[in-house]
Amino acid sequence: MPVIRTYTSEPVSESQRDTLKSFYGALIAKVPGKSESWLMCVFDDDLPIYMGGSADEPAAYVTVDVFSRAAVDPAVWGSMTGPICDELRDVLGIDPARVYVRYGSTPDFGWNGSNF
Predict the structure, then answer these.
(1) Which residues touch 93 (CB under 8 Å, ≥6 apart)?
(2) Number of domains in the chain
(3) Where residue 19 sits, what CATH number does that domain have?
């Protein structure tokens, strides 16, 4: 049950969403037991995002959350940050220095009217 949320100050076109969705689908496979077949991608764009007190340049905040009863190896999360920042730079023109990425896992996750 992975979910990747992308909050960005930039407008995101349907084509850009599709590009990012495909990228995230391949990237989530780095997390053991996760795949695109269960991935939910949420996009919230054209937001006022202040970083360092300024909203003068594009910025983004990405969260990656997974259902897991065991801790995810921090090296896995570490292997994802660079590619996420690079993809946001390439697709949306956002400087990696203006991107935050947060990772999390939870043993409590609901789907289809019940919890795992």
Answers:
(1) 10, 58
(2) 1
(3) 3.30.429.10
Alpha carbon distance, N-terminus to C-terminus of the chain: 10
Answer yes or no: are the C-beta atoms of 30 and 76 closer than 8 Å: yes
Question: Whole domain around residue 102: which residue ranges?
Answer: 3-115
pLDDT digits (tens, 9 = 90+) for 11-28: 999 999 999 999 999 999
Q: Output 22 or 69, whichever has higher pLDDT.
A: 22
Averaged pLDDT for residues 23-47: 96
Q: In whole angstroms, give the CA distance from residue 18 to residue 25.
A: 10
User: Rg for the chain (alpha carbons), in Å?
Assistant: 14
